[in-house]
Amino acid sequence: MQELTHYINGAHVKGTSGRFSDVFNPATGEVQARCPLASAEELAEAVAAAQAAQPAWAATNPQRRARVMMEFVRLLNRDMDKLAEALSREHGKTLPDARGDVQRGLEVVEYCIGAPQMLKGEFTDSAGPGIDMYSMRQPLGVTAGITPFNFPAMIPMWMFAPALACGNAFILKPSERDPSVPLMLAELMEEAGLPKGLLQVVNGDKVAVDAILDHPVIQSIGFVGSTPIAEYIYGRGCSNGKRVQCFGGAKNHMIVMPDADMDQAADALVGAGYGAAGERCMAISVAVPVGDETADRLIEKLVPRIEKLKVGPYTAGNDVDYGPVVTAEAKARILGLVESGIAQGADLVVDGRDFSLQGYESGFFVGPHLFDRVTPDMDIYRQEIFGPVLSTVRAGSYEEALKLAMDHEYGNGTAIFTRDGDAARDFAHRINIGMVGINVPIPVPLAYHTFGGWKKSGFGDLNQHGPDAFKFYTRTKTVTARWPSGIKDGGEFNFKAMD
Ligand code: NAD
Q: Quick count: other Cβ atoms within 10 Å of Cβ 349?
């Protein structure tokens, strides 16, 4: 059995806590590795190494730091297939989807090559007599990130690329369910020229997370994962005086207007609802057709498409639409929610409960499910299912559809499908959700825009990547300077406006 490591101060280090968790191959159900779960002492070792390495990195000019990012991009492209294979093996997603996971992280690294431009300060010449005023963006010091299982390449890169480009050290605590790719990324960053100690991977669970939350040297924490943990980390991290941003769960609605192109809407729903087995925070999990006639047409288009979905292991390459879910517990939870939907009165139009794949009977596969006539009081509507289960809630009018999405506690992403520019514009303007698609089902912003949800999907006031990342990973210092020629008149005792 393979025993995974931490990556501390430039070396793979065995776990010393004596605690491990199992890493599965979700396609076969077999345990393929053991992941060490760090103690607070192991985390403290990483912090000490980061603290020692960071000042010299902060003093390295930003262009040189950016060149490390440039080389890292080349190495990511070189190793793309290797990374994707390792990712699919632990996560279960298809190989093309795993490449997308790496690619969407790589794009943020590319954006960070422009860090010198983003880190420039502001300057006011002659803000007062003989006085210049300027601000600079300085790194925070030692920063940390805690990431979820569903994007083991992309989300770590969204955090560590801007953190490092800004001159910080970064400690990554990835998901213990698929820790191999994060370890590979740390090695590749060093191959790209990053000095040791600046990007470290400490594997673990709540013990490691609590150690991060309480360590006085760690200045900032980025978290992506489920909402209850996001709320916990935000509260405890902030009360410990750290800068914290947390991104949580989702329940993304797609409004289908009567004038929408129904084939386009159905294709979009199938991809966005079932891709990656629904294990995406930007997956569409609720379809909201406006009017019964729209709903009937939509269901009619959806059913054959869903019945044709190919579910299988990543080793089948391009021949599968989605793979298994991440663990047996995740599978049991999803199927439990399906049962609750039936018990609470929703119509199960496509039933994937009996799905099984020959040769992979122990894999964590879940067949696709489609519910119609779901109502807002049902558990399948209120909870994030994070599986291949799409719910349809019929709305009587556009206003009712809008209100439904607005009243849900989550506010990550949403979409509207329509040919009417007025409706689309009104929706984008009024909706209280962070990322909106207009005839685009998964509106994940590109690297140079920012990513973040509202309501219970996001905590903190800055988003991920884009210009916000450079604000999150730096702090502003403002200098007011007057050179000796101006200091001739003795002390000033009043708080003065500049003349
Ligand atoms: P999770 O909350 O279970 O785990 C996330 C991280 O928190 C992991 O590193 C885990 O080790 C750690 N953790 C788990 N339990 C903890 C505890 N009790 N105390 C401290 N730390 C703990 O989430 P997950 O299952 O890995 O990921 C799926 C969730 O992430 C979904 O809810 C999904 O919507 C969300 N997600 C959100 C976004 C976003 O940008 N909003 C992106 C991806 C995933």
A: 16
